[in-house]
Specification:
It is a single chain. By secondary structure, the protein is mainly α. It folds into 2 domains: 59 residues, Homeodomain-like (Arc Repressor Mutant, subunit A); 119 residues. It is 57% helix and 0% strand. It is built from 10 helices and no strands. Helix 6 runs antiparallel to helix 10, helix 7 crosses helix 9 and helix 8 packs across helix 9. The longest helix is centred in the first third of the chain and has 25 residues. It is globular, with a radius of gyration of 31 Å.
Amino acid sequence: MATLAELQEKRGGEITRRRILEAARARFSTASYEDVKLRDIAAEVGVDVALVHRAFGSKEQLFSAVLSTSKEASSQATIDASRLSADYASGFFGAGQNETLQIVVRSLTNPQAREVLRARSLTEFIGPVAAALEGPSTLERATLFNACLVGMAIFREVLGAPALQDANSADTRPLIERILAACLAEDSLVEPKEDGQTKGARRTTRTKKEPARSKPAKRRAPTKARKA
């Protein structure tokens, strides 16, 4: 049976670990992967950097732990699917921006971080959204949903697209919500047909050109007979 001192030490270790994760999450969401330093995280928490290494191992392992414990990833499985598009559209702007989305965008250029993201994309991002959906092709719909989110975030954070900045949120947010809702809708996927025409696609009919009418030949005036 554990002693009181051991229980207190364990509880203190769990609190310190949680504080390290919170500090790391805040830094990874506001700075690039390369600019995040373990010693800075340790200094913010008030512990030695050796404790960070002992608790999480490498920087890559800490990054992976941050992704798996993110608030958004942990709550997606229980969220109301009908609210997903509205919640994420709202979380795209202002102080309530989706923290995990910021981490993904700021870490994509680093090879190590990109490998972690690739390995966890299904379990942390696509899978929870797919689990909240009903109907066919849930995995495909969840993938499109996440692809749109990341793509828009890149245009906002990296390319600085004016339409996606906070100043234009009133006009852009409803559009983003409709785009995300379309990705999640059961009828969002177009089914191919055997004749190559897609189901639901409009068949365009070309009007045949009428052949040009030939002009009637001009009658020649009768020639007068020459006098002998």
